[in-house]
Design goal:
There is one protein chain. By secondary structure, the chain is mainly alpha-helical. It is 75% helix and 0% strand. It is built from 18 helices and no strands. Helix 4 runs antiparallel to helix 10, helix 7 runs antiparallel to helix 14 and helix 12 packs antiparallel against helix 16. The longest helix is centred in the middle third of the chain and has 32 residues. The N terminus and C terminus are likely disordered.
């Protein structure tokens, strides 16, 4: 992993690859400021979910149209992440981060006051664009502003905890504001947070050097087209069918865009997605594990939320609070995982984590119509949180830990694109498996196969770790 530059300050004419080391207190505040944005982005993946029924009735959405309150954000966010990462490398990560956050904050305000379905979907799309610009900068700024390897590991652990823990926290906050207030606060909540971060970012977060060069326009269009086509196809596949013209056309478009992207990246001098990022077997392993684990986690957000409300008859708030044990498990492990990583390396943690996640899914596969929350869900949700917290940070460190500073934004965008696409693929597969075993009017019949499918994904992640990663630690200076 790259180390910090010597104590001598970088000159104005030739900036160092890493920002000048700052006081510990300022660094900690800067990391906190950046992580608040990651929390906002993670919250927005789920906070609207429990409010959908009230949004639908309040703005008179059609059933099909209501799904676009979620899909519009997912499409824009997942489709533009690679572009956001490269823009940060080219024009300065803090600048692009602030631009994206400003757009995200303004779009949140617009969505909160929207009075028609079209305006809300447009606002959610703009939120996704802003998130795609800001998100790669979060991880890149965390790794480049941390003064040493140990601090970067801690920052990565907090990033991982906030990323997945924030999604579960979103269910709690969404239930709270929906039950005791209005669904509009699921969007308004971003406004004071965003304005606070914008006021503090320049003071406590160090800008990174720009990487001048001709911008890869063709690569940007091809990468965006491929990602958008994949997410759009997968969001509709469970309803439209995997062999429907819509699904087949979407996959064809994504493949064509991917071929154009690969051909372009091999010949341009400053590629959007540097081929060097794919030459390390360990990084490929980290990407594969990330996609598989994020895909498996979608079973929790899709199935458990419905089980709580449809079978156990929980209110939106109680359904959100039911995820607190999972969230606590993730955040507790975020404090422990960096020390475990320093001692054992990535592979043992990933093998242990993916096996633990598998156990949680197999446990969840046994839920029934007469079970209680304490008997059927408390244990597996806590177990899932603990082992998710053990898994995400080592996987993320494999992807971004050894990357050259000039490619940090691209690597961050690649990691988060993998998370988004992995989640979309996993959700599409799990929904399809659930639907195949579902019985009209009953929720439970399709659940067993769906959770076992999630377990199959984490078993695959475990096998991928064993095949592609060594069991020992590599020195930070090992080849990339």
């Amino acid at each position: 992993m790259p180390t910090a530059r010597p104590d001598s300050a970088p000159s104005a004419d030739a900036p160092a690859d890493r920002p000048e080391r700052k006081r510990t207190g300022s660094t900690a505040i800067g990391i906190t400021v950046v992580l608040v944005v990651q929390l906002m982005l993670a919250l927005d993946t789920t906070i609207v979910n429990v409010a959908l029924p009230r949004i639908g009735s309040g703005l008179h959405f059609s059933p099909a149209g209501l799904s676009w309150v979620l899909n519009a954000y997912t499409l824009a966010f997942g489709g533009l992440l690679l572009l956001g990462g490269r823009l940060g490398d080219t024009f300065g990560r803090l600048r692009v981060f602030e631009t994206g956050l400003a757009l995200f904050t303004a779009a949140s305000l617009a969505g909160g006051i929207a009075d028609t379905p079209g305006l809300l979907i447009a606002a959610r799309t703009a939120q996704g664009v802003g998130a795609a610009l800001a998100a790669p900068g979060v991880l890149a700024l965390l790794t480049t502003n941390a003064p040493d390897e140990s601090a970067r590991h801690r920052a990565l652990a907090l990033f991982s905890a906030v990323s997945i823990g924030g999604s579960t926290l979103g269910l709690v906050l969404g239930g709270l504001v929906t039950e005791y207030g209005t669904w509009r606060w699921t969007l308004f909540i971003n406004v004071p947070l965003g304005l606070t971060v914008l006021a503090l970012a320049r003071r406590f977060v160090t800008e990174t050097p720009r990487r001048p060069g001709r911008f890869d326009t063709v690569g940007a269009v091809a990468a965006t087209g491929a990602a958008v086509a994949v997410v759009w196809t997968l969001t509709g596949a469970p309803d439209q069918g995997w062999t429907s013209p819509r699904t087949v056309a979407g996959f064809v478009i994504s493949v064509v865009c991917a071929v154009v992207l690969v051909a372009t990246e091999r010949r341009v001098s400053v590629p959007l997605l540097p081929p060097v990022l794919f030459r390390a077997r360990r990084r490929l392993g980290g990407l594969a594990v990330t996609a598989l684990v994020f895909g498996s986690q979608m079973s929790i957000f899709f199935l458990v939320v419905q089980y709580l409300q449809r079978v156990l008859h929980f209110s939106p708030l109680r359904a959100g609070l039911a995820f607190v044990p999972m969230t606590l498990g993730i955040f507790v492990m975020s404090r422990i995982t960096p020390r475990l990583l320093a001692r054992f390396g990535q592979a043992p943690l990933l093998i242990t984590g993916t096996l633990g996640l598998t156990v949680s899914y197999v446990w969840l596969a046994g839920v029934g119509t007469t079970d209680s929350y304490a008997a059927a869900l408390l244990g597996p949700l806590l177990l899932n949180g603990v082992f998710a917290g053990l898994t995400f940070m080592p996987a993320a460190s494999l992807v971004v830990g050894d990357v050259e500073p000039e490619h940090a934004g691209s690597a961050s965008g690649l990691l988060q694109t993998t998370q988004q696409l992995g989640g979309a693929i996993g959700l599409a597969v799990i929904v399809s498996v659930y639907a195949a075993g579902a019985v009209p009017g009953a929720f439970v019949p399709g659940v067993r196969a769906a959770f076992l499918t999630a377990g199959a994904l984490t078993v695959t992640a475990c096998l991928t770790t064993a095949l592609l990663l060594t069991t020992g630690r590599r020195p930070a200076s090992a080849s990339r």
